[in-house]
């Protein structure tokens, strides 16, 4: 493997991504700056899925014919690969879900089961508190709002400060003996802010609270190790890390998963079923009701191989350099305000900005006319936008295949935006 | 891609100087609509004149936050519908919706939707169709609200 300090060979990487050669119309090449919403997939991931479907496809963990065995091996092999990728002590701690949203809902629903047989630490009820943050993606906010509503628990949140970081000045009051869960994102999908997860986890554990980490924006972009972070659960999605859609991951400490009631129920997750009632399988099967997404798991394992071959530290350095370049260029433009911290080690490559007097939809439309694909709107983080007094932002996000030229195209594209709208002023 | 078919001078004129903007009294019904994908919002008040045989749109006032297309559309909608009978307004709204859902295959009848023809460029962009139609849907919802409250007069 190449040393972690060698820069990525982006030109070689781009040859693995067929879609990047696409033109939106003749003469308008694709400048894809929306990898934070969904990343493109390399040929290797696409081919791994195709190879599975052409050779080993069968229903997993049911039937005893050889093809079913081969499919099951592929599925469980993918679980092992993903466990290794995130530093999980055991593949049994890796639960496959439809996406990260389902993974977070799984935890929120299981903690709200109301089942008195479940240990108190894994049971949220009236009088308990759930702590989230003002920067959360709706996927790590709404399930907790609903859990609070169902159980009578109180939802509290860590506010955002003017510096685009969490305001931890009232943390000791917010995180207290009543707090059962701290649900927090590792890195903001809008601001790019990296949260101090290890420090917050220590404090949460000191008051007996569980920590649920939304790792959607960190797993694809930096070395990620659940043991090192110390959290109790982590959720992330396949399609943001060069893998397929239709698959997400919930990692959880085995002893917690083993004490938790199921979320979805049905086939595959049972131990014994009678007409009167059922008992449930051990994790992870307990949380994987129904026929799972097998080819997607194979594709996701292949994405882990691809990312590891490049090296997560090199990927992080590559994206940090792009982030600094983007922020440097954008903040020179009149009327542009970066909604997020300045370039540095405490942020990653989600670069969201506001253009004074112009709605992000209009900004995005002009950029799109030049083939520059960015995300516009509230990026599923409406409260965050409200906090900073903007209806929405324009957001560029990067991946392993993003080039400096593409960042420069964004900055030049913003010049076009300014000129285009100036004609009407 | 030709942006000028989307961002016409008429769109910008309405975006910069929206007609009938602001919330006014009196009003028969008020609604609040959002576009959940982008967070755009409109509060719309409809005031009906029910003195005659045909209920008539006496006033439409609104407070809209959104992109140029959605703001221009609210301005054009209010200007078109104020003064019309509810029945005429329904025909105008129906034509607007039909044109916006035609993916750019229909130019729109200027005699019916006036400056609304300047919004037709958005019909080629399914995402932007919602921006344009938000204010129109808000009008229809306000009318429904007035009817539900029994305040729409006539046979409505």
Care to give the gist of this entry?
Chain A is an alpha/beta fold and 425 residues long.
Please, could you describe this protein's structure?
The complex is a heterodimer of chains A (425) and B (156). Chain A is of the alpha/beta class. Chain A has two domains: 10-32 and 311-419, Aspartate Aminotransferase, domain 1 (Alpha-Beta Complex), CATH 3.90.1150.10; 46-308, Type I PLP-dependent aspartate aminotransferase-like (Major domain) (Aspartate Aminotransferase, domain 2, 3-Layer(aba) Sandwich). Helix content of chain A is 36%, strand content 16%. Chain A contains 14 helices and 17 strands. In chain A, the strands form five sheets. A seven-stranded mixed β-sheet of chain A has the order 4-10-9-8-7-5-6, sandwiched between helices. Chain A has a four-stranded antiparallel β-sheet with strand order 13-14-17-16, covered by helices on one side. In chain A, α5 (142-151) links the parallel β5 (129-133) and β6. The longest helix of chain A is centred in the N-terminal third of the chain and has 20 residues, at 66-85. Chain A is globular. Chain B is globular and about 50 Å long. Chain B is built from five helices and three strands, in the order αβββαααα. In chain B, strands 1-2-3 form a three-stranded antiparallel β-sheet, covered by helices on one side. Chain B has one domain (3-148): Sufe protein. Chain: A, CATH 3.90.1010.10. By secondary structure, chain B is an alpha+beta fold. Chain B has helices at residues 9-16, 68-81, 86-100, 110-113, 126-148, and strands spanning 29-35, 40-49, 56-65. The interface between A and B is medium-sized, with 20 and 21 residues. Chain B: InterPro entries: NIF_FeS_clus_asmbl_NifU_N. Chain B: It holds the Pfam family NifU_N. Chain B: Residues 7-131 form the NIF system FeS cluster assembly NifU N-terminal domain. Chain B: This is SUF system NifU family Fe-S cluster assembly protein. Chain B: It comes from Brachybacterium equifaecis.
